[in-house]
């Protein structure tokens, strides 16, 4: 799933996905442990076959009735199969929605508290629980109705069997001993059939779970350029883990032109240390809104080792440019190049090593401070000294050693045990360790107070040295020293120049500066 397009993760709510996977994988595990480890299904099947053989060999005269019994049971099983799949599906979805809602509420607990939203969340949760209860009742009713009907059919067939058998004994066509054995084995057959039907019911639920997982995953494409990079690193033997069939099929048809030209690992990264990054006539629409063109023929050159600031009104496409540079998406037309080479000839994992992203809200993992910094190079064995050096360069060492367990202090879920400025400096230390030639700062200091902002800005200045940097900022005061400022509007770069050049031009940038009433010299 990690290899699917980024669009897939935009389309589904994360909680819904994890809820779905948890509940469906849970039901898969239950069925496997019940039916495979304890052989329940296999035992029932062998008992049914064995008993039928014995019954046939005991009395071929009673075989037609036995046939009727088997036929009616299999018809019922087929009806059960058809009727339960949608109910199993909706029951699983109802369960996934509950866990999605709970995780969303807990992660947004501060927002809930501040809006006094507890009552609303409780009542929404109740609704979901009731929906789960009612789908559970429906499923239970269907299961028990099926079981009752099956039993009725089985018992009526047995009654008919005994009447026929009794009349044959009376007529001297069948011995009492054989009839008694026949009755004993029909009971064994009844229980075995019941066990088989229960297993079938469980399997229906499992198929519904598998179908749900597949329907979610098949809604998106494998990101073949990412899969290619992972394939190279893991080797073919490990690709079974990555849905190789699907991957091979997709890899052969999609983007074959670029896939065939994929270059070796180091090229993209090393070119980025010495060459400019150019967006050439780039057009882009998000897959979920393919009719809306966010970028339409955008041209921009990020000069090697220099700072480019990207400004512009909200919704003008600044973050979209970042997503394209990081290759979370590819341009729908036009191209992005590094030192003249199209980015698509480098596989995505290699290109990811060339770009460091520092956002307004950096995401930390719920491990220790040191491990979060070492995540800058997740595939390498990082020494503690390297981590400390990066933390010092990011103005983070002092506060880290004052934490209760120093570098081993857990940061909590999403870094919740640290302040915004501390999280930001750990993210910068992580980027320093990564040592990528391209740095993208997306509103990196906008959420901080003056003291934290100064500490973070110092760390950023250190990080920016010698790297091709793109800074996105709403507060124009933070970008006035950039080597060039690009104003993005209507999916294009409308103005480009230094701060003083753009002010002198008296265009959109100058009026934005005026709106912000900044005291520039
Ligand atoms: N994942 C997405 N799917 C569909 N449309 C999107 C997606 N992300 C952004 N958009 C749309 O693309 C347009 C550009 O968004 P973008 O986030 O790039 O603007 P921005 O200039 O960074 O805005 P801001 O300054 O407010 O962050 C907007 O109209 C937005 O609604």
TrEMBL record:
<dbReference type="Pfam" id="PF00664">
    <property type="entry name" value="ABC_membrane"/>
</dbReference>
<keyword id="KW-0067">ATP-binding</keyword>
<dbReference type="GO" id="GO:0015421">
    <property type="term" value="F:ABC-type oligopeptide transporter activity"/>
</dbReference>
<dbReference type="GO" id="GO:0005524">
    <property type="term" value="F:ATP binding"/>
</dbReference>
<dbReference type="GO" id="GO:0005743">
    <property type="term" value="C:mitochondrial inner membrane"/>
</dbReference>
<dbReference type="InterPro" id="IPR003593">
    <property type="entry name" value="AAA+_ATPase"/>
</dbReference>
<dbReference type="GO" id="GO:0016887">
    <property type="term" value="F:ATP hydrolysis activity"/>
</dbReference>
<dbReference type="InterPro" id="IPR017871">
    <property type="entry name" value="ABC_transporter-like_CS"/>
</dbReference>
<protein>
    <submittedName>
        <fullName>ABC transporter B family member 28 isoform X2</fullName>
    </submittedName>
</protein>
<dbReference type="InterPro" id="IPR027417">
    <property type="entry name" value="P-loop_NTPase"/>
</dbReference>
<keyword id="KW-0812">Transmembrane</keyword>
<keyword id="KW-0813">Transport</keyword>
<keyword id="KW-1133">Transmembrane helix</keyword>
<feature type="transmembrane region" description="Helical">
    <location>
        <begin position="176"/>
        <end position="197"/>
    </location>
</feature>
<feature type="domain" description="ABC transporter">
    <location>
        <begin position="277"/>
        <end position="515"/>
    </location>
</feature>
<dbReference type="InterPro" id="IPR003439">
    <property type="entry name" value="ABC_transporter-like_ATP-bd"/>
</dbReference>
<keyword id="KW-0472">Membrane</keyword>
<dbReference type="InterPro" id="IPR039421">
    <property type="entry name" value="Type_1_exporter"/>
</dbReference>
<feature type="domain" description="ABC transmembrane type-1">
    <location>
        <begin position="1"/>
        <end position="205"/>
    </location>
</feature>
<dbReference type="GO" id="GO:0090374">
    <property type="term" value="P:oligopeptide export from mitochondrion"/>
</dbReference>
<dbReference type="InterPro" id="IPR011527">
    <property type="entry name" value="ABC1_TM_dom"/>
</dbReference>
<keyword id="KW-0547">Nucleotide-binding</keyword>
<dbReference type="Pfam" id="PF00005">
    <property type="entry name" value="ABC_tran"/>
</dbReference>
<dbReference type="InterPro" id="IPR036640">
    <property type="entry name" value="ABC1_TM_sf"/>
</dbReference>
<feature type="transmembrane region" description="Helical">
    <location>
        <begin position="48"/>
        <end position="80"/>
    </location>
</feature>
């Amino acid at each position: 799933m990690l290899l699917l397009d980024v669009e897939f993760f935009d389309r589904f709510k994360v909680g819904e996905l994890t809820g779905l996977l948890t509940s469906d994988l849970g039901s898969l595990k239950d069925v496997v442990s019940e039916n495979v480890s304890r052989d329940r299904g296999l035992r029932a099947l062998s008992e049914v076959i064995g008993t039928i053989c014995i019954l046939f060999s005991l009395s071929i005269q009673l075989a037609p009735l036995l046939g009727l019994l088997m036929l009616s049971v299999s018809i019922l099983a087929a009806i059960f199969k058809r009727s339960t799949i949608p109910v199993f599906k909706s029951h699983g979805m109802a369960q996934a929605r509950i866990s999605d809602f709970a995780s969303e509420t807990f992660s947004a607990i501060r927002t809930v508290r501040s809006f006094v939203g507890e009552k609303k969340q409780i009542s929404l949760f109740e609704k979901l629980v009731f929906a789960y209860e009612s789908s559970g009742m429906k499923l239970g009713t269907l299961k028990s109705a099926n079981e009752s009907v099956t039993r009725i059919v089985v018992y009526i067939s047995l009654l008919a069997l005994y009447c026929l058998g009794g009349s044959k004994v009376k007529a001297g066509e069948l011995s009492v001993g054989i009839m008694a054995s026949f009755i004993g084995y029909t009971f064994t057959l009844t229980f075995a059939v019941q066990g088989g039907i229960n297993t079938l019911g469980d399997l229906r639920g499992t198929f519904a779970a598998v179908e749900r997982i597949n329907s979610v995953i098949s809604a998106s494409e494998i990101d073949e350029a990412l899969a290619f990079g992972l394939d190279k690193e893991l080797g073919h033997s490990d690709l079974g883990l990555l849905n190789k069939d699907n991957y091979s099929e997709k890899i052969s048809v999609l983007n074959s032109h670029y896939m065939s030209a994929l270059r070796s690992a180091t090229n993209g990264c090393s070119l980025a240390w010495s060459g400019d990054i150019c967006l050439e006539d780039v057009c882009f629409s998000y897959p979920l809104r393919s009719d809306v063109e966010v970028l339409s023929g955008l041209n921009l050159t990020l000069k090697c080792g220099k700072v480019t600031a990207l400004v512009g009104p909200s919704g003008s496409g600044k973050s979209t440019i970042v997503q394209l540079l990081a290759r979370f998406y590819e341009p729908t037309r036009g191209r992005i190049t590094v030192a003249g080479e199209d980015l698509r000839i480098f596989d995505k994992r290699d290109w990811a090593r060339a770009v460091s992203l520092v956002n307004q809200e950096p995401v930390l993992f719920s491990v220790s401070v040191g491990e979060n910094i070492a995540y800058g190079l997740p595939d390498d064995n990082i020494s503690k000294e390297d981590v400390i050096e990066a933390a010092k360069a990011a103005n983070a060492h002092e506060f880290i050693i004052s934490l209760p367990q120093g570098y081993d202090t857990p940061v909590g879920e999403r870094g919740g045990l640290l302040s915004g400025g501390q999280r930001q400096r750990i993210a910068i230390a992580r980027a320093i360790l990564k040592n990528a030639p391209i740095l993208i700062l997306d509103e990196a200091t906008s959420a901080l107070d003056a003291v934290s902002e100064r500490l973070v800005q110092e760390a950023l200045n250190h990080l920016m040295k010698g790297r091709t940097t793109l800074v996105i900022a709403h507060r124009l005061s933070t970008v006035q020293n950039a080597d060039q400022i690009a104003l993005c509007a209507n999916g294009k770069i409308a103005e480009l120049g230094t701060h003083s050049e753009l002010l002198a031009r008296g265009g959109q940038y100058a009026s934005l500066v005026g709106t912000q009433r900044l005291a520039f010299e």
